[in-house]
Sequence to fold (118 residues):
Amino acid sequence: MLKNRVLLLGLGLIVATLVALSGCGAPSQTPTGGLDLTFIITMAVIFAVFYFLVMRPQRRRQKEQQRMQQELKKGDKVITAGGIYGVVDSTSEDTVVIKVESGALLRVVRASVVSVRE
Fold:
């Protein structure tokens, strides 16, 4: 997975460099002002690479995390953001009651549950 991202990033940077360098020759006419087409293309390529390597995977992880938190049920073994291991004892709309190894019950916010153990 990481290799694919690195390859895509490298490919994007190569394409952006080639596009930017393609307009570096001596101009045949004097510039009249305005935006250069190579600048627009380069910025579009950089934005596309950023979107596919950073924004899209982050959204996917957030959706998976929210779905996992909404699907919590009694008996699930969970880990909280604070590193507490426990078993879900009961759930409500915003909170989860977790039973830890010592037998104590802890009420935590659903958002603090980061993973469900198998």
